[in-house]
Amino acid sequence: MMEFLQQRLTDLELFGWDEYINYWFFLAMMALFAFELIVMAFKKAVTWNLIGDSITNFITLFAYRFIGGLIYILFYLTAFFWVYENFSITQLPLTWMSLLGCILLADVIYYWEHRFMHVCGLGWATHTVHHSSPHFNISVAYRFGPLDGFFPFFFHLPLIMLGFHPFMVFLAEALVQLYQTALHTQMVKKLPRPIEYIMNTPSHHRVHHATNSKYIDKNYAGIFIIWDRMFGTFAEEDEKVKFGVYPRINSVNPFTVFFHGFTKLGKQLWEAPSWSYRFQLLIRPPIWAWEQEQKRKREAAAAEAKASP
Amino acid sequence: MNFFVSALSTILLGLVVGFALSLQKAEPPTEFEKYSSANMDFATMSEVGYAMAAFGRESTADYFELKDYQEYVQLAQNDHAKALSASDSPQVAASEAQASKAEAPTMQLAQVEHPAKPKAKPSLKDWPKSVIGIQRSTELINVEKVWQEFASNSALSDQLDSYTVSVFAIYSDFNSDYSRATISIGYDKPSMKGEQQLIPKGKIETLLKPSNYGNNALLNAWQDIDYSKAVKAVVERRDYTQNSELTSLFVIYQ
């Protein structure tokens, strides 16, 4: 076993596994999605809204892949190699053991990146797209925002500096992402307790996609739910989940869906009372902007009430 | 506070895992594992990546003809062992084999090194009337440069569709002291596009039978030419298959 773990890999082998797994996993997920649709059809739960929403999800996937591909080619790949060659503290051997370590660290990094996407206005502008579907099925996993491929760069850069080969990081990143993809289903209720305790499961991820107040900003994990348990953001699924975001976007128009996060952020920036407010809109959690708006509304109402005798 | 403790513990975890992994005693890389994408264009990298992903290492080894390379290393080692036991003749071949063993194999089709064991002996019967290649007039001492120019001529090598190919080097129009000649090097591929180099007609005599020779053996063979006769040309023939390279030398008298 140890011999296998210490067997060397080539960087191309990692690149190859990445391509291979991505390709076959996508096919497997499409099969699972087809199965979900059949089950929903038996339950008479297939609606035109669900079909429109699913098609939109795949359109956002293509748009994301296009933008993400550009980001990847333009600077992601180059910068990773440049940092790896010049600024990494060591260059770890390319072994299965290193890959396991890389997956573990990529998973905890995913937790932080994901948490950042939720608690920072700029991150939420792109990530809100993923959460805006009122449905929850495999196609929702492929619902992406315009800059979803941009932020992971900054979070994974430390792994490169730590000495992991860029292709190893890409593979680890992909594995975490793919594991997450498979969680977007309501077909699986709860798994055995030890699994639910350690691993992220469909149940935990349903909580993450919920609008129920007790579930907001919970369960950011990728593969292991232990990060949420450790860092205080865990919630158990114990009441019926309502999916989506507030305010609801109520649209299956791909343009509306894909850009609504940035449209909303742009509108808030345009109407902002000051530059410091604009800056805070970018870095503070979206709830902050909502609270500020409520506060302004209350103040305006109070002022109006004062003015009228 | 909780946030910062969490972030710090994450950094600590990263450092601990990174440090532990840096202590690995990984096996040293094999010849196969020395391959890196660092010197590869993206298209090749992608192609190899897909090959690697679809069928594992074996298909990638096939892509680079790595099995041939390893076979070549083995054969070169055998030659080296033989060279050590027989100290007189193949010194050069042995040192060449050593040198090739040390170098990483190149990746372009035209530059792939081949093992040096004869498989099928070409005969005089399959001589073409002409070959497709280049012609230069040069001092014989500089002939290596013409070979290099020929080897790097991708317009020609890109037309190759197989590893089984014969290359002819025709030395003709010698000056009075045989220090200078016109050298034509070309592929025996009539279908190729390029300049046609004719092989002079005349009485052909074999100087070296097809086999694996080092530079010294080739140079010595030139001493066997009967310079009292009118020498029309000297022809060096190299027959490549996927696994071998055979060299033979001929002289064409008037």
Topology:
The complex is a heterodimer of chains A (309) and B (254).
Chain A: H1 2-5, H2 11-42, H3 48-86, H4 96-119, H5 121-131, H6 138-141, H7 152-162, H8 166-181, H9 193-198, H10 202-208, H11 226-231, H12 254-270, H13 275-283, H14 286-307
Helix pairs in contact in A: 2-8, 3-7, 4-5, 4-7, 4-8, 5-12, 12-13
Chain B: H1 2-22, H2 42-55, H3 57-63, H4 66-85, H5 91-102, E1 130-139, H6 143-151, H7 154-157, E2 165-172, E3 180-187, E4 196-198, E5 203-211, H8 215-222, E6 231-240, E7 245-253
Antiparallel strand pairs in B: 1-3, 1-4, 2-3, 2-6, 5-7, 6-7
Which bin fits the share of residues in helices of chain B? 25-40%
Alpha-carbon distance between the two ends of chain A: 83 Å
Coarse morphology of chain A: globular
Instruction: Please compute the radius of gyration of chain A using only Cα atoms.
Output: 21 Å
How would you sum up the global shape of chain B?
A: elongated
So, CATH architecture of the largest domain in chain B?
Alpha-Beta Barrel
- The amount of beta strand of chain B, in percent, is 15-25%
- The number of distinct β-strands of chain B equals 7
Poorly predicted runs of 5 or more residues of chain A: none
The helix fraction of chain A, in percent, is 55-70%
How would you describe the oligomerization state of the chains in this entry? heterodimer
Largest sheet data of chain A: none
User: What is the average of the pLDDT values of chain B?
Assistant: 74
Distance between the termini of chain B: 97 Å
Q: How many separate helices of chain B?
A: 8
By helix and strand content of chain B, what is the structural category?
alpha+beta
